[in-house]
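S.,

Sequence below, as promised.
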Amino acid sequence: MKKVIYIFGFLLFVCSAKLNAQDIHFSNINEAPLFNSPANTGFFNGYFRAIVNYRSQWAAMNKAFQTVAVSVDGGLFKTRRRKAFLGMGLTVFNDKAGSANLQKTNALLNVSGIIKTGKRSAFSVGLAGGVSANNANYSKLTYSSQFDGNTIDNTLASGETVVYRQFTTTDFAAGAAYEWSKVKTDQDHDDVTAVKISAGAFHLFTPVQDFGPGSSYKIPRRYTASINTHFDFEDTRFTVTPTFLYHNQGKAWQFVTGSYVKFRVKTGTKVTGQKTENAIGFGLFYRSKDAFIPALIYEMGDWAFYATYDVNVSGYRYATKYSGGFEVGFRFNNLASSLFESRSEFK
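The prediction came back faster than expected:
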């Protein structure tokens, strides 16, 4: 456990600047595990998990960035006695913005291998592969030649020859993850302490963005490192989840850090599993030199609903009036019982 804490502190020290990454990002970093590393596929307490996220960013631009992302994953051959099992999953997202609705649709199939490395630890490696489709309605683009002295008149001839086109590329990613955890059993609730460290590399073969003849721009690889923790305060109803995420893509980099404080409104029954735990949580996160992010989550058994709002503090705040991005989502995690942790399926 001391080694995990040392690694956590080191990453916090070295990762402290800004990124304006080209990939999509989410403010609720706890709820996008497969977009942070393919190794997180199937690597969780439960049998099946589905997460849906929706994000609308920078509405002040009039044509806001809008992102919808869906991920589903689970474990295959996962039993209490088995020391290793496979994870399978799928991630799909659609991101669009601007007057021309420039958009990307990405779909990746994820596969991981998870192995028990000790009574309280497990390790995972994962791969992902799929396709990325890019398109836009280029007829909606306007040009300076259409300025009539007062406004842009899109009925005027632009004099431009549009050669942009739709295109599809292949995409691949890889990652690794390690988790240490312990569970202290009690009569009505198990207190969990867990730390997971994961890393990922996306766009491994830097696909060319073929928007037109002669296009040679390649999307840079994106590297990630994250730490997700869970600490139940013994003999209380409180939990904290300090989280840290680092991205690097091309010459840009960024970190996001923060935590939820959760309160168990209702405690599950340990013997029958008929009643499940309900909890409400309030969080605050910070994206480096970009935004403060208040967050709210409500967990009700297998379901969780959450929302975040970016309070923009970058130089762009003068245009946004401190309004950044609004994000909502839900998670379904089939635990098979109200207290899956006590079953120790792979711990």
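Helices lie at 2-14, 33-36, 317-320.

Coffee later?
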